[in-house]
Amino acid sequence: MSKEIERKFLVSSLPDLSEAKKAVVRQGYLTAPDDSTELRLRQKNDTYFLTLKGVGGLVRVEREAEITADQFETFWPETEGRRVEKERYTGHLPDGLLFELDVFSGDLAPLRLVEVEFTSEEQAKGYVPPDWFGADVTADTRYKNKTMAIYGVPD
Amino acid sequence: MSKEIERKFLVSSLPDLSEAKKAVVRQGYLTAPDDSTELRLRQKNDTYFLTLKGVGGLVRVEREAEITADQFETFWPETEGRRVEKERYTGHLPDGLLFELDVFSGDLAPLRLVEVEFTSEEQAKGYVPPDWFGADVTADTRYKNKTMAIYGVPD
User: SUPFAM superfamilies given for it (chains A, B) (predicted)?
Assistant: First the structure.
């Protein structure tokens, strides 16, 4: 299992994104948070997935199948109120670090979040973010995609 | 909406099924009975479906998509303990009436049920079943497929 070392920030102002790669991402839950199973629809550009996750227990089952756009659209209406819709821009910062910038639409607009990926914890701790970054929300679980799908943007 | 007039019986002994049409049917639930949504996988011979049903409320949403065998098999293991597996034989009785005979396998074996379809309530009420039929369980909701998927064969 690979370990990701990331920090997550709000975004004060959008940077120049002309060199960034853009993807349309939609994900939504067919099940409610208290249900015994989690079923998630996810679109990334022209690929679509249905993912089942077992809830609770030590070992959490995960099963995923690629689905067609038609299959996705058949069930998507039932995710209403439990969605994350965003454009994801992936690129490199001037110092070479990889960033993923999410510009949310739908119920979560106008929220924007940016994540930076590091190669070591030392690098992550010593990191000085660029001017366009806002508050560090790395430890704030309210900004998790799944949490926002249900509870919306934190106050 | 068409109205079905049917009676359901246990089966004392199997009749000659050489003229009947046989179908392999598997259905199973990805969700538990108390969940806010019902997701059902269903196979009939070489066709496979995923069906979502809203739970409760006056209007119950239903959305269904045909899926591939691979997609079916990806999620099927998660229906364990909530399955109906059977061979369905469809044919005509000597008096011309249509019957559907279900021979259950898996957890519900060796249960067998037969349903007869009528064109009027009078015909249904006056019906004298053939010798190979057992007890009439038309009104016994424990013999519904969905109920048996969860609770098993009635004692």
Answer: CYTH-like phosphatases
Q: Where are the domains of chain B?
A: 3-151
ipTM, two decimals, is: 0.83
Contact across the interface for A35 and B36, Cβ inside 8 Å = yes
CA distance A136 to A7: 7
The closest of B82, B73, B77 to B43, measured between CA atoms, is B73
Q: How far is CA B90 from CA A48, B5, B98, B103, B105, in A?
A: 38, 16, 7, 11, 17
B151 is catalytic: no
Question: Residues for chain A: how many in total?
Answer: 155
pLDDT digits (tens, 9 = 90+) for A6-22: 999 999 999 999 999 99
Count Cα neighbours of A117 within 13 Å in the Cβ-side half-sphere.
10
Task: Indicate the fold that domain B3-151 takes in CATH.
Answer: Hypothetical Protein Pfu-838710-001 (2.40.320)
Sign, CA dihedral B66-B67-B73-B77, equals: negative
The torsion angle over the Cα atoms of residues B38, B44, B47 and B53, rounded to 10 degrees, is: -10
Contacts of A32 in chain B (CB under 8 A): 35-37
